[in-house]
Amino acid sequence: xxxxxxGIDCDVKASDLEGLLAExxxxxxxxxxALNRNFVRKKDRAExxxxxxxxxxxxxxxQGG
Length: 65
Hints:
With 65 residues, the protein is mainly beta. The protein has one helix spanning 17-23; strands at residues 2-5, 8-11, 32-35, 38-40, 55-59. It has a five-stranded mixed β-sheet with strand order 2-1-5-3-4, with no helix packed on it. Strand 3 (32-35) and strand 4 form a beta hairpin.
């Protein structure tokens, strides 16, 4: 399936957002996620199904000033 992750076209095997994070090696990291510009809570990622052409944003928290 072809989706966009953080603005980059990707061919992925995952069918849901939780699987995508594992596929992209984010599974053990603290991240915020959005699917098609809608925030997806951590507990809802397994139910957030992916479709061809979807847009996903994965954001990692940063500190500093």
